[in-house]
Amino acid sequence: MKRVVVIGGGIGGLSTALSIEEEAVQKGLGLQVILLERKERLGGNIRTEKADGFLIEGGPDCFLSEKPWAMELCKKNGLGDKLLTTNDKDKKTFVLSGGKLHELPEGVILMVPTRIIPFMMSSLISLPGKIRMGLELFIPRKKTGDDECLGDFVRRRLGQEALDKIAEPLVAGVHAGDPRTMSVKASFPKFVQMEAEYGSLIRGMIARMGQMRKMMAERKAAAVSGEGSASKPKVSMFMTLTDGLGELVDSIVERLEMTTIKTGVNASAVVKTASGYEVRLEGGETIECDSVVIAAPAYAASGLLAGLDKDASELLDTIPYVSTATVSLGYKKKDIKHPLNGFGFVVPKAENRSIMAASWVSVKFAGRAPDDSVLIRCFVGGSKKEELVFASDEQIEKLVRDDLNDIMGIEGEPVVKRIFRWHKAMPQYTIGHIERVSSIEEKIAKYPGLYLGGSAYHGIGISDCIRIGEETAKKAVTFIRG
Ligand SMILES: Cc1cc2nc3c(=O)[nH]c(=O)nc-3n(C[C@H](O)[C@H](O)[C@H](O)COP(=O)(O)OP(=O)(O)OC[C@H]3O[C@@H](n4cnc5c(N)ncnc54)[C@H](O)[C@@H]3O)c2cc1C
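^ thats the input. predicted complex w/ flavin-adenine dinucleotide below
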C-alpha cells in the first residue's frame, strides 16, 4: 500500500493527515499515513489546560472567522455547537501610553481609522498625530511594487505616532514581531492591496468593512436558519471553542482512521531512494514511503533536508523565529479594582515594560474562569525582549505582576498561575519573505512527493495552517495517484 509520512503533530500536520485521508477516500485510494511527533503530546502550539475551574490556553486562544478554514473544520468535526463567539458587549482594546490605559478608538481596525468622531475624541493620539493619520487619504500610492518593512509602510501612510502607539504594539501582541524587519507584503498583504486598489488604507478599510458586515450577516443568517432554534449570533471576528482549542486537536485525532500516530518520535532526516523516500528517526529506525509532508518549523525542516538538498536546507534556516511566553493569572474578582471593560491592552515599546500585551480572557470569552474570578493572560518575550522567556518562573511572574499591579491596580494574590514558554515558535515573515519562500519551493519541487506545510511559509495563524494542510493533501494524493 502507498504510504505518506507527515512530520509534525501540530495543527498543520494533523489537519494535513486528516485532509489526506479525506482526499484518498474521495478518490477511492487505499493509503497509509504515518504521523510523527517529536513530543509526547499532540497539538504543537495548541495547548489547553483546566485548573481549579479556569480554562487556560497556553498558546493560541482563538482563530479569525474571516479566514473560514478553522471554523469549517470545527463544524466538519462535529464541534459546530461548541463554537464560541467573543463577548461583544465589552470588545474594547486599550493601549498603554504614558503609563495609563487609553481606549483604542472605536472604528480603528488594526491601525486604520474608519470612524471620525470616536477617533477625534480619543485620548490616545495627539492632535497633530490625528491630522497626520487623516492625511492618509491624500498620500499618493507607492509607485514601485518592491517589498517594504511594516514600520516604513505605516510611517509613510499614517505617520510616526500611528506606528508607535498603534501598529507597533498590535503587531508585537499578535506576531511577536518587529515592524522594522517585518515584510508588509508577506505579513499584511491586504494593506498593500488596499493601497494599490483604493489609493488609501482608510478608503480601502471602509470598503472592506462593508463587505465584512455583509459576510457576517450572511453567516449569522445561515447559522440561525441551519440550527432552527439558534437565537444568539454565532459569528464574531475571533472565535474559539467552549472547551478550548485543545478540542479541535482531539476532534481531528478522533477522526483519523488510516493514520498511525507516533508520538515521542523525532524525525532526523529525509532521504531520497529509488522508489520514494526514507524518513530516518532518531534512534536508527527508518520508514519507507512514497511521499513526505514536513509540517514542522522551517529550522526543523532545514535539519531534515540537510543531506538531501544543501541549498534548500540553508534557505529554510534563514526564516527567523522568535520565542514568547504566556503567563496566565487567575484572581478573585474582589481583588481587582479595574473594571476590566474590554478584551485587554497592548503595550508600545516606548513604555519599556516587561509585558507586550494582556488579555482579559474571562471577559473576552465565556467559561474561562469561575463566576467569582477573572483570568488575565500576559505575553512576554517576542522580538522586543526575547531574553525574558529564558528567565526563571519566579522572575517572570514577578515582572508580569509588577506591570499588572502598576497598570491595573491589582493588589491581591493570584489563585492560579501558569507559565508556558514557546521557544522559537513564532516564524517571522521578514522583508523578502515571499521571494525566500519561492526559492525554497523551487528547490523542493525537484523532489516529487515532498512538501512543506505549517505556519512558516504562507500564513501564520491556525486557519491558514488548516488551509495549507488541505492544499498540501490534494497535491500529495494527486502525486500518489500518478
Ligand atoms: C503564544 C502563541 C499564541 C498564538 N496565538 C494564536 C492565536 O490566538 N490565533 C492563531 O490563529 N494563531 C496563534 N498562534 C499561532 C499558531 O499557534 C500557529 O499558527 C499554529 O499553531 C502553528 O501550527 P504548526 O502545526 O504549523 O506548528 P506547531 O504547532 O509548531 O507544530 C509543529 C510540530 O512539529 C513537531 N516537530 C518539530 N520537529 C520535529 C521532528 N524533527 N520530528 C517530529 N516532530 C517534529 C513539534 O514538536 C510540533 O509539535 C500563536 C502562537 C503562539 C506561540
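Residues 202 and 378 are 31 Å apart (CA to CA).
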